[in-house]
What does this fold into?
Amino acid sequence: MLRSEGSSDGGPARSRLPRTVIALGLVSLLTDLSSEMIYPLLPVFLASVLGASALSLGLIEGVAESTAALLKVISGAWSDRLRRRKPLVFAGYSLSGLARPLIGLARVWPFVLVMRFADRLGKGLRTTPRDALIADVTPAPLRGRAYGLHRAMDHAGAVLGPLVAAGLLSLAGVNLRLVFLLAGVPGIAVLLVLVFGVHEPAAAPVEAAAVQVGFRADWRRLGTGYRRLLQAVAVFTLGNSTDAFLLLRLTDLGLGPRLVAVLWSLHSLVRMAATYAGGRLSDRVGRRGMVGAGWAVYAAVYLAFGLVRSQIGIVVVFLAYGLYFGLTEPAEKAWVADLVPARLRGTAFGGYHGAVGLTALPASLLFGLLWQALGVEAAFLSGAGLAGVAFLLLLRVPPGRTFPGNSLKDPG
It folds into this structure.
């Protein structure tokens, strides 16, 4: 396994998070700031500047997200075999930081496709090793808090990015291309933080019996509890379609584009606060209860989106949707770390991200087909129903910290 940051006895101070966790949170904040300076403006840029069609946009985003999902599976197992996380994390952030702002130089839409592909390639390369590294440096009793802080800072970047882009566009002489190019500035800061702020713990010696012999053997060693958690997550994600459908529902009920944009920012603020608080709470009350509560909130929100007709009511429900992320995002990742051997955390997080990423596409297709064929109520009710089925599957998963070496006293 990998030894945690901390004192000479191998264990960090219980009362505070490791510096590497805080540095990785700052990295995610800056990365999302850069990304969200571009992403909300990309459809407008493609349509109005490059003359691309809606089909082109769909192809670009489909290729981008599928690439990220597949590579997340591979990069985790790769980091386990290297027994190093930071090189892959640094390479992933570097690739994205270089490719993302170059979209501003595009003259034809296929160039955007290539840059988005490279950007998501970087995301797939870095995400799983980064999540495993957070577990490597954080003691078990603080893992929920660590993932909560990381996700909160990530959401903070999502709040700031569009605001920075809007502020830049209000200046004389600033157009979309220049905004995209300026998005490279936070990317440079990301690399500096990674070099000077992120420190990887030394790898402990690996016993002969624990030498990796292949993916199948590693998969078996991850344990039944982990595989049951993945099954539940996959079923839940089949009912968890893209948030674009929620925004479309807001528009259908008469909310204008400006109000929807404001609500999205407020929603991100709720997510930011909820993920930090939820991560800390999961360390106290347990992972299964937190994830179960989050999925119950999700089911209630989707039921309400299918049934509520008033604008005030749907606004309240949409903001409450942010609570679901706070209850589930940190707890799910901490739970994965709790259930598996430390030396296979990369492989475990790769399976987790793969289950989420590879079921997200059929989830959105299913939701769209139901909306078109049976109506909006049926589509949202299906999401709530699948969340209910997933909740039942969740009851079969051990509550956490069951794997030897992942106890409360062991920093992992």
User: Anything to note?
Assistant: The longest helix spans residues 345-374. The chain has a mean pLDDT of 84. The chain has two domains: 19-200, 222-400.
